[in-house]
């Protein structure tokens, strides 16, 4: 009997937490970002199923993408890391609350929108949209240039362009 009451209280508390907009935005945004990671990996690697279907989690996929050095924006990299840290806090602490440092870090790069959005309620949502838009743009570029990594991790693409990493290193001399 006691177990049923505790379970009911737990379920009620969990449902209240999931109905909070910021919590909902982080969880659904985290899923959206991971789906885009999957798409980037599918576009770049001919045998991507070995990554996608092999129980690689969000962080492992993120490490693969980071190791390719294809996201030059430090702001995007920091926001992805922050969203993942917040999501982990939500997943592992039932009474998780947003830390001031997290809110401050989410505000970075969003200053021009301060008068347009309600920061407390919409900050997470707008950051997720910013990340998602950036990753979708990256996927479009990868598709447009037909960039692929072969088994030797030599990047190949079409057009007569040179693709450079954020550090300025030459990735590809496309043919």
Write up this protein.
This protein is mainly alpha-helical and 175 residues long. The protein has one domain. The protein has a two-stranded antiparallel ribbon with strand order 1-2. It has a two-stranded antiparallel sheet with strand order 3-4. A hairpin with a 5-residue loop joins strand 3 and strand 4. Helix 2 packs parallel to helix 7. The N and C termini lie far apart (70 Å).
Features:
disordered C terminus, single chain, two-stranded antiparallel ribbon, globular, 175 residues, 7 helices, mainly alpha
The rounded Rg comes to 19 Å
Instruction: Classify the oligomer.
Output: single chain
Strand-and-helix sequence, N→C? HHHHHHHEEEE
Strand content: 5-15%
What secondary-structure arrangement, pairings included, does this model have?
Elements: H1 2-19, H2 21-44, H3 49-52, H4 58-68, H5 74-92, H6 100-107, H7 119-144, E1 148-149, E2 155-156, E3 162-164, E4 170-173
Antiparallel strand pairs: 1-2, 3-4
Helix pairs in contact: 2-4, 2-5, 2-7, 5-7
Please provide a brief summary of the model:
With 175 residues, the protein is mostly helical. It is built from seven helices and four strands, in the order H-H-H-H-H-H-H-E-E-E-E.
């Amino acid at each position: 009997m006691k177990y049923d009451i505790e379970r009911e209280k737990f379920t009620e508390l969990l449902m209240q937490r999931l109905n909070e907009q910021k919590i909902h935005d982080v969880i659904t945004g985290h899923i959206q970002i991971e789906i885009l990671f999957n798409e980037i990996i599918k576009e770049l690697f001919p045998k991507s199923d070995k990554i996608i279907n092999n129980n690689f989690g969000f962080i492992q996929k993120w490490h693969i993408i980071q190791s390719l050095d294809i996201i030059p924006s430090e702001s995007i990299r920091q926001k992805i890391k922050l969203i993942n840290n917040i999501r982990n806090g939500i997943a592992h602490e039932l009474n998780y609350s947003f830390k001031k440092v997290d809110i401050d870090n989410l505000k970075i790069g969003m200053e021009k929108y301060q008068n347009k959005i309600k920061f407390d309620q919409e900050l997470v949502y707008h950051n997720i949209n910013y990340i998602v838009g950036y990753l979708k743009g990256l996927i479009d570029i990868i598709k447009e240039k037909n960039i692929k990594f072969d088994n030797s991790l030599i990047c190949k693409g079409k057009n007569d362009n040179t693709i450079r990493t954020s550090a300025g290193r030459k990735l590809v001399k496309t043919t």
